[in-house]
Every structure is written in structure tokens, then in C-alpha cells.
Design brief:
The relative contact order is 0.14. It is elongated and about 95 Å long. Helices cover 54% and strands 14% of the residues. A four-stranded antiparallel sheet has the order 1-2-3-4, with helices on one face. It has two domains: 90 residues, no CATH class; 72 residues, no CATH class. It is α+β, with helices and mostly antiparallel strands.
């Protein structure tokens, strides 16, 4: 007994939706937060402006400024994840390993802002790397493939009634033509 494409598509769609519901909820929720990260200082701190636009700050003075901030938990360069230099704003955004961000003026070495940065955490939840590289590869990647299958079966299931109606209409028109001729 051969299973019809319609029936197979419905089953695949139903089971695929069930398998992907939790990871997909996490991907959608985190994706929505990432969409508004520039508008929401809760997700990603706003970049403040420094005094000038020409970086004059030495690396050691930058490190000293960040070490002086208690929330940063920085004792050396090993405690810093990355430094984002924004010459047009005159600011260095120092992202610490503990997810705190310290913004330092590139001319005066004054600490302009200290904020908790959630965007990197949200990104790691979004792609699954928060859990492990194995989860990213063996849970979130297959989830994406199943989601792609859901898209194809969803489009097919959406088109199915339209196609059936068109087929019936053509059949009816052909039948009417045959009656008119014969």
C-alpha cells in the first residue's frame, strides 16, 4: 500500500512541528531580542561618545581604566574578551569575560559607561552554542533542517486546496465545452 504524498506531507509536518517546538521557541525568542538589540539597552548597551575622534589612548592606560572598574573583574588582558574601537565616537568598548562592558574615552581614558551586555549570551542561545558545540551541531542544525522541511510541506499543504479547486474548475469547464460541442 503506497502512502500518498498528501498524507506523508501532513505526517511530516505534524511530527516535524512537534520535534522542533522547543528549540524553535528558543530561536524565535532570542532572534526577536537580537532584532531590537540596538534599540534596547537591556540587550546591548548604547555606545556613548568620547571627547575626540582621534585615538590617543595607550593600551596600558586602557587596561588600567578597566581594571579600576569593580564589576569588570579584570586583572589582566586574559580577563578581556575583546576590545571594539570606535574612532568616530572616540570610544573603546571593552567586553570583559564576565559579560560586563566598559566604555573608555580614547583620549582621556575616562570610563564613560559600565553596563552588563546580554547580546552575546542571547546570540549563544540563538545558535545553540550556549549549551555546547555538540548541541549546536546535533540539535540546532537538524532543527533548522526540519524547519526547512516544515516550510516546504507547509507551502505544499497551503497550495493543495488551491490546486484541487483549479483542477475541478478546469474539469468542469472541459465538461461544459464538451456538452456545448456535442
Amino acid at each position: 500500500m503506497a502512502i500518498s504524498w498528501n498524507r506523508w506531507s501532513r505526517k511530516l509536518h505534524r511530527w516535524g512541528a512537534l520535534l522542533t517546538c522547543l528549540p524553535l521557541l528558543l530561536v524565535i525568542g532570542s532572534g526577536l531580542l537580537l532584532q531590537v538589540k540596538k534599540q534596547s539597552t537591556w540587550v546591548q548597551p548604547a555606545t556613548v561618545k568620547g571627547v575626540g575622534k582621534v585615538p590617543e589612548l595607550e593600551w596600558e592606560r586602557l587596561l588600567e581604566a578597566v581594571v579600576a572598574v569593580p564589576q569588570s573583574d579584570v586583572l589582566s588582558w586574559d580577563d578581556i574578551d575583546r576590545v571594539d574601537i570606535r574612532p568616530s565616537k572616540g570610544i573603546a568598548k571593552v567586553q570583559c569575560e564576565n559579560r560586563w562592558e566598559v566604555q573608555v574615552d580614547l583620549q582621556t581614558s575616562e570610563v564613560k559607561a559600565v553596563n552588563y551586555r546580554r547580546s552575546d549570551l542571547i546570540e549563544s542561545l540563538h545558535d545553540g552554542s550556549f549549551f555546547s558545540d555538540a548541541a549546536k551541531l546535533w540539535v540546532f542544525f537538524p532543527n533548522g533542517l526540519i524547519l526547512l522541511g516544515l516550510w516546504f510541506t507547509g507551502v505544499y499543504l497551503w497550495w493543495l486546496p488551491i490546486g484541487v479547486k483549479r483542477k475541478k474548475k478546469r474539469k468542469r469547464q472541459a465538461s461544459q465545452k464538451a456538452k456545448a460541442i456535442g
